[in-house]
Automatic annotation (TrEMBL):
<keyword id="KW-0520">NAD</keyword>
<dbReference type="GO" id="GO:0048040">
    <property type="term" value="F:UDP-glucuronate decarboxylase activity"/>
</dbReference>
<keyword id="KW-0456">Lyase</keyword>
<keyword id="KW-0963">Cytoplasm</keyword>
<comment type="function">
    <text>Catalyzes the NAD-dependent decarboxylation of UDP-glucuronic acid to UDP-xylose. Necessary for the biosynthesis of the core tetrasaccharide in glycosaminoglycan biosynthesis.</text>
</comment>
<dbReference type="InterPro" id="IPR016040">
    <property type="entry name" value="NAD(P)-bd_dom"/>
</dbReference>
<dbReference type="InterPro" id="IPR036291">
    <property type="entry name" value="NAD(P)-bd_dom_sf"/>
</dbReference>
<dbReference type="GO" id="GO:0042732">
    <property type="term" value="P:D-xylose metabolic process"/>
</dbReference>
<dbReference type="InterPro" id="IPR044516">
    <property type="entry name" value="UXS-like"/>
</dbReference>
<dbReference type="GO" id="GO:0070403">
    <property type="term" value="F:NAD+ binding"/>
</dbReference>
<dbReference type="GO" id="GO:0005737">
    <property type="term" value="C:cytoplasm"/>
</dbReference>
<feature type="domain" description="NAD(P)-binding">
    <location>
        <begin position="33"/>
        <end position="335"/>
    </location>
</feature>
<comment type="similarity">
    <text>Belongs to the NAD(P)-dependent epimerase/dehydratase family. UDP-glucuronic acid decarboxylase subfamily.</text>
</comment>
<dbReference type="Pfam" id="PF16363">
    <property type="entry name" value="GDP_Man_Dehyd"/>
</dbReference>
<protein>
    <recommendedName>
        <fullName>UDP-glucuronate decarboxylase</fullName>
        <ecNumber>4.1.1.35</ecNumber>
    </recommendedName>
</protein>
<keyword id="KW-0210">Decarboxylase</keyword>
<comment type="pathway">
    <text>Nucleotide-sugar biosynthesis; UDP-alpha-D-xylose biosynthesis; UDP-alpha-D-xylose from UDP-alpha-D-glucuronate: step 1/1.</text>
</comment>
Length: 349
């Protein structure tokens, strides 16, 4: 019985971890693999994991959207290793835990090469599950609120099956299904490996997360608005502006991921901040906080943009004792500082 209350029948016991784990005389470190660790969330997760002196962290990343800069403080550290690797290729490393994050997350990047996005989610996740099976590691997969598509249930509990458009319409360039359906198949693979091979799995469904180190030209709404406000460019609201999102600050999210990995629940578990804002409200807040002179302009939207999104985090509260702490205004100010430093735009006194 998985402790999220659902039955997940395993046909096999979990694979045996490395004999090092049972060593009587040598207390080995916990070896943790973070795929996509050079990205936004991954690099913050690495910072958190490296705080524990018992952890050794291996990052693999192909640098499609991530950067070594995000990990510069750890390069050369004896407990840290960075490998350029694409998760669509098999990987042989000896580890105890796998945080599997590798995947472009911003719509402009995941739509750029949709077939590669699907391969990353499907073949990449298969490779990481194969690795977990061989070495007996516990594996956590970062799924997404996009598995709920354009949701017809609000807020979204984990039990909701979602409303995803699976059709890659030839005439509409770059729809979202490569990402949404890729993540849905990856979730299925996680649970099939759990049932069929006994792998210890954890599945997080992450809702829109923001914070320092997001790519400045990442294309997601919070980074766009902050960069635009600082550069004095119009804030681009994609129509209609009444669509909602719930924004979680990255330190809260990372805390939730670590709790999920360390706890007993397979998930899927929603991790997100239930505070819900329209895109227009977000633009107004950024304008007020960062640059009251900036104009707001309305631009065309992309197909299939979800109209509303808000996590039901009852499960995360009950099973992980987790809920977000950082309010949107405070998080935006922390992100402003980081963007100012990277764009070399100081605050007027
Ligand atoms: N940030 C969010 O709001 C959010 C919401 C839901 C889910 N997620 C998930 O969390 C994870 C991290 O997202 P993020 O916001 O940090 O995005 P990000 O783009 O900053 O990080 C993704 C990282 O994965 C790497 N990567 C991509 N494809 C790869 C491949 N084939 N092989 C190896 N590395 C690869 C990128 O170079 C990058 O470093 C993703 O799986 C994403 O789907 C994020
Ligand atoms: O400049 C912009 C960018 C975006 N938007 C709007 O802001 C909303 C949020 O867009 P984002 O691109 O930030 O993110 P989305 O919510 O569409 O997708 C995200 O969802 C969860 C994760 O899996 C991913 O990080 C990402 O796919 C959308 O309604 C979009 O139309 C703007 O109004 N202006």
């Amino acid at each position: 019985m998985a402790s999220n209350g659902e039955l997940h029948t395993r046909t096999k016991p979990p694979p045996t971890p490395s004999p090092l784990r049972f060593s009587k005389f040598f207390q080995s470190n916990m070896r943790i693999l973070v795929t996509g660790g050079a990205g936004f969330i991954g690099s913050h997760l690495v910072d958190k994991l490296m705080e524990n002196k018992k952890n050794e962290v291996i990052v693999v990343d192909n640098y499609f959207t991530g950067s070594k800069d995000n990990l510069s403080r750890w390069i050369g550290h004896p407990r840290f290793e960075l490998i350029r690797h694409d998760v669509t290729e098999p990987l042989l490393v000896e580890v105890d835990q796998i945080y599997h994050l590798a995947c472009p997350a911003s719509p402009i990047f995941y739509k750029y090469n949709p077939v590669k996005t699907i391969k990353t989610n499907v073949i990449g996740t298969l490779n990481m599950l194969g690795l977990a099976k061989r070495v007996g590691a516990r594996i956590l997969f970062t799924s997404t609120s996009e598995v709920y598509g354009d949701p017809l249930v609000h807020p979204q509990p984990e039990s909701y099956w979602g409303n995803v458009n699976p059709i890659e319409d030839f005439f509409i360039a770059g729809v979202r299904s490569c990402y949404d359906e890729g993540k849905r198949v990856a979730e299925t693979l996680m649970f099939d490996y759990h049932r069929q091979h006994g792998i210890e799995i954890r599945v997080a469904r992450i809702f829109n997360t923001y914070g320092p180190r997001m790519n400045i030209d990442d294309g997601r709404v919070v980074s766009n608005f902050i960069a635009q406000a600082l550069r004095g460019e119009p804030l681009t609201i994609q129509k209609p502006g009444s669509q909602t999102r719930s924004f979680c600050y990255v330190s809260d999210l990372v805390d939730g991921l670590v709790r999920l990995m360390e706890g007993d629940n397979t998930g899927p578990i929603n991790l997100g901040n239930p505070g819900e804002f329209t895109v227009l409200e977000l633009a107004d807040t950024v304008k007020e906080l960062i640059n009251p002179q900036v104009v707001i302009k309305t631009v065309e939207n992309t197909p299939d943009d979800p109209r509303q999104r808000k996590p039901d985090i009852t499960k995360a509260k009950e099973l992980l004792g987790w809920e977000p702490k950082v309010k949107l205004r405070d998080g935006l100010s922390l992100m402003e500082e980081d963007f100012r430093a990277r764009l070399c735009i100081s605050k007027k006194k």
